[in-house]
Structures are given as structure tokens and as C-alpha cells.
Amino acid sequence: MRHASKLPQVGTTIFTEMSALANTHKALNLSQGFPNFKSDPLLIDLVFKAMKAGYNQYAPMAGSMALRAAIAQKYQALYKSSYRPETEITVTAGATQAIFTIISAFVRKADEVIIFRPAYDCYEPAITLQGGIPVSVQLKAPDYTVDWDVVEAKVTSNTKMIIINSPHNPSGTLWSKNDMLRLQQITKDTNIIVLSDEVYEHIVFDGQSHQSACLFSELKERSFITASFGKTFHNTGWKVGYCCAPKALMQEFRKVHQFNVFSVNHPAQKGLADYMQTPSHYLKLSEFYQNKRDLFLSLIKGSRFKAIPSQGTYFQVLEYSNITNENDVAFAKHLTITHKLAAIPLSVFNENKRDDKVLRFCFAKTNETLEEAAAILCGI
């Protein structure tokens, strides 16, 4: 049988490729973004109790009402912004499913979707599968700031959606209040939907604040916010996230959600709902990860790599032009095979594979792992 691929240019993701290379060569894996330490035993116990209590059948399609209520309480407490749990919050199988479902529900053939590169790799394939046209805005190392005049020039009558991500993966940068206000001004009086990927909202450093789309009233009216419990509570394998949006947008989202997922792991939802009753479980996350960032940067201070401290996420970008002129993909593979340390090259997320000679390292690791990785980097 012969079939034309709907994604002919798409192969195995760089995360899968680098993790496989790390496994083959027994390298430390600071490439894929997952913690190598355990989730809170209390959360594990709450999910286990939910299983024992009988929460083992389908959850409601939109998610457990207890969990949706806990999410609504969080937005009210943190952002003074309200989402109705009945109609404006849906629990999803991770943020990636939420993103795919949002794009599937709204993007039609020839619709244009603006994405900021380096972009997380699930955005463009989802757009392409719906017949949409990805429109790139390339951010430049080392600061990855947005030129809003370029963005405004790329908005056309065919622009259906703008996808934003802050704190930003892979660069570790943070959008400012002025960035969000400019986005609000550009989309004012249009039919453009904003998809705000905020999975690292609780990992922001140096006293800065996360500028959620829900903080800006006119922006909120046109925005989906996607979030991830896996990133927040160190359990990426559970694949539980959620999205928030105004009722009219969420109605369209749920039409698709009910057929591609229907509902999400029920005992995990019950456990998470109970766990969220103690806000410190997510409010202390910035301090926890800033300590790890600072440790990692202090340990590599004597290396030949250059770093601008990450502003958020649990990723640190390192520039290596003092070491080699190799392109970043080749150097990442060399680092894994020869030096036994895996990282992610950023060119794979850029327009036309733009190579800024930078690699992304995940510091969501035990201190012992970070010390071992830093010793390798300092020896190069």
C-alpha cells in the first residue's frame, strides 16, 4: 500500500533522538525536560487513596469538578482573574493535547498561525495537519526578545491564531508586561485567537512575575491558556494538564476534546485536586528551581561555556562558540557520545535551522546529577 504522508518533513523528535543517544552511550541526560527526582510522596499517596476509594471509572468529559474548582481558585488567588469551572476550564491529557485540540478546533485550510521561534516542536505539525500555514517570527540569541513591529507586519486578514509561550521553552526567557500589552494592542478588534502556552508559569526567577494572558482583560477574551501538572508537580509521565478560555471558545474546544480524548485519568485528577488545597505546593516552586539554576551556573563558572541566567522554566541555554565552530546538532551528538552528557540543540526549533551555537540543558535534576554534569562541562 502507498500513502502520501501528511507530515512528510517530520521525523523523530529531537527529544527522542537525544534521549536514545544518551541511553545508548550511557550519558547523563540533561536533554529531555523531565525531573530525575521523585514526586512528593504525599501526592502519590493521595492518588493511591483515590484509587482505593473507587475513582477508577471515567471522569467527567471536562474533568473532575473538584479539580476544575481548585484550578479556578488558583487563578483567582494568583491573578485576580476568574474562570468558571463549569464552562471555562477543561482538564486535558497534558498541555500538548490541549494545544493540539485548540488548533484542531479553530484552524482551517489556509489559515495563518504566527509562532515565535525557537518554538516548541508540537506547534507546527498540529497547524500543518489542519491545513494551516505556520508563519514564523524568529527570535535571536542571546536575549530572544520580540520585535513587535515584525509581528505586526506579519499579521494579515488570514491570521487565525498567534501562539505564545512564556516562560519560554527552549530559551528560558520571560515575556514582560509591555510584551503582553503590545500583543493585546495588535490583536484588538480582530478575530485572532491567542494560544498562551504557560506550562512553566510557576517557575520564574529573580523576583520577576509571570505575565499570564488572563491578566489583560482584552487579551483574556480571545485567549486559551494551557498548563501542565506534570511540569509543576514533577510527574510528567502522568500526562495531566488543563486549559482555560472564555465560554464561547471552550465550547468549541470541548466538541473536539470529547472525541480525541473524552476524559483524563480519574484518580490522578482526584489526587491533584486534594493536593492543590495547599497552595505552597506550587508557590514554592520558583525558589526550588532557582536554587538548582544557581547551583548549576556556579558549578560551570570556570568552563568555556557562556550563560545568561535563565529567567524561567527549568532549562539553561549555554553558548559554546569559544569551544568549537561545529553546528549545534553535531556538537550535541559529540557531547553525548564522547563526553557522556546529552543536551538539546536549539537550531532544530529555529527558522531555516538558524544556528546560534547554543545548547539547552535541563536542570530539573538532583544536585548530584548537576554536579556530575558540571564537571564534564568544565573539562571541555
Automatic annotation (TrEMBL):
Matches recorded under SUPFAM superfamilies: PLP-dependent transferases (SSF53383)
Keywords: Aminotransferase, Pyridoxal phosphate, Transferase
Keyword match Zinc: no
Lineage start: Bacteria, Pseudomonadati, Bacteroidota, Flavobacteriia, Flavobacteriales
Origin species: Mangrovimonas yunxiaonensis
Pfam assignment, any one: Aminotran_1_2
Protein name: Aminotransferase
Names of required cofactors: pyridoxal 5'-phosphate
NCBIfam families tied to this protein: PRK09082.1 (NF006569), PRK12414.1 (NF009079)
